[in-house]
Amino acid sequence: MTAADPLASATRAAELVAELSARGHTVATAESLTAGLVAATIAGVPGASAVLRGGLIVYATDLKAVLAGVDTEILAHDGPVSESTAAALADGARTRCDATWGLGLTGVAGPDSQDGHPPGTVYIGISGPGGTRVGRPEVAGDRWGIRLGSVDAAVSGLLARLHTTSAL
């Protein structure tokens, strides 16, 4: 008996894998607060190997620069939890993993605030054809709820972006 992947089942990951596959596109992630959950969620869908290039877990601030290529000036000036950092993470995931799309996630899952940002502060960058955009989804709950909500927002955000760029 095969059980359904609980992460993939809790999101629109199967729809994302199907859409990316139909377009011949790939995706990579650079994840801070989700620590690889977006990549794991996508990987939980059968056929994900055709679209998932890989992921960078950049939980520590210095690894955002070392692994994802976030400019140290951005980290020093704007901080690890910022719109500019999310954009740079998405760009880094895309370029370093040679993917069509890059997802960059940074934020605070809690239970405590970080650098003045309360739990639930999340930035998601999406880098792809046509440039990089960053959103700040509304996520709430306990630590797990914030992390799962961030995964869901990233998957749904990329789907929305794919649907608005159908002429790629």
Please supply descriptive tags for the structure shown above.
168 residues; alpha/beta; five-stranded mixed β-sheet; globular
Characterise the protein shown here.
The protein is an alpha/beta fold and 168 residues long. 42% of the residues lie in helices and 18% in strands. The chain has seven helices and five strands, in the order H-H-E-H-E-H-H-H-E-E-E-H. The chain has helices spanning 6-9, 13-23, 37-43, 61-66, 72-77, 83-96, 143-164; strands at 27-31, 52-57, 101-107, 122-128, 131-135. It has a five-stranded mixed sheet with strand order 2-1-3-4-5. It is globular. The N and C termini lie far apart (40 Å). The mean pLDDT is 95.
Report a brief summary of the structure.
The protein has 168 residues and is of the alpha/beta class. Helices cover 42% and strands 18% of the residues. Helix 3 (37-43) packs across helix 7.
List strands and helices in order, with pairings.
Blueprint: H1 6-9, H2 13-23, E1 27-31, H3 37-43, E2 52-57, H4 61-66, H5 72-77, H6 83-96, E3 101-107, E4 122-128, E5 131-135, H7 143-164
Parallel strand pairs: 1-2, 1-3
Antiparallel strand pairs: 3-4, 4-5
Q: Characterize the overall form.
A: globular
- The span between the termini is 40 Å
How many strands in all?
A: 5
Helix content: 40-55%
Q: Bin the strand percentage.
A: 15-25%
User: Which radius of gyration do the C-alpha atoms yield?
Assistant: 15 Å
Tally the helices.
Answer: 7
What is the string of helix and strand elements? HHEHEHHHEEEH
Structural class: alpha/beta
Strand order across the biggest sheet? 2-1-3-4-5
Poorly predicted spans: none
Describe the main β-sheet briefly. Answer: 5 strands, mixed
Determine the mean pLDDT.
95
